[in-house]
Amino acid sequence: MPAPILGSAQSASKIVEASGRVLLLLDTQQCVLAPTSQGGIPDVKLARNNIEKILAAARKAHPPPLIIHVRNTGDTGDMDEPNTPGWQLIYSPSLNEVVIDKRKNNAFAGTSLADFIPTSAEIIVVGFQTDFSIRATCSAALGRGNEVLLIHGAHKTYPRIEVLHGGGVTTAEQVESEIEAELTEAGVHLLDMEDVEHMFDSRE
């Protein structure tokens, strides 16, 4: 994986200033596309395709948002161990896009992400996993004062194995709905894929 194509927060600020928006792709890495028998996320194709559509719309926008790819960095033996195939990004960064590596669910924790995103920016969030990186990063962005938009159908997670209350498994779709409801209550704006066409229109 090459070094970040845009590494300067000063350069990034000019892009954000022009559009007022940031598209944040969380943990969009090859490991989530692995077969479920090898630890990949089940039924991930629709979310992957939707994220691809959003990314394409963002890249075609005038002015475009600042696009940031946040890559999770796992431990030795993890599916996202650094410099392994699973760690690589699904979508190759283009010119003027940022790549940031993280170790925690909250993409602002222990990274330079805050240097690239002013609190005045609107953040559009997509990626994986809904109940970990998506939840933690959206919550942190709200706490900073950012306006946060989460796109239904453009985030995905695993089914949840329940330890308490008799066990069982909660479907991924139910987990995703629970987190969407929680984040909406906290102040996140939940949008649908039908909104993508005009999502990056000028705010003027």
UniProtKB/TrEMBL annotation:
Entry keyword Hydrolase: yes
Pfam families: Isochorismatase
InterPro entries: Isochorismatase-like_dom (IPR000868), Isochorismatase-like_hydrls (IPR050272), Isochorismatase-like_sf (IPR036380)
Annotated GO MF terms: hydrolase activity
UniProt key word Hydrolase: yes
UniProtKB keywords: Hydrolase
Gene3D superfamilies (alphabetical): Isochorismatase-like (3.40.50.850)
Residues covered by the Isochorismatase-like domain: 22-159
PANTHER family, A to Z: ISOCHORISMATASE HYDROLASE, PEROXYUREIDOACRYLATE/UREIDOACRYLATE AMIDOHYDROLASE-RELATED
Entry's family note: Belongs to the isochorismatase family.
Protein name in the entry: Isochorismatase-like domain-containing protein
Organism of derivation: Leucocoprinus birnbaumii
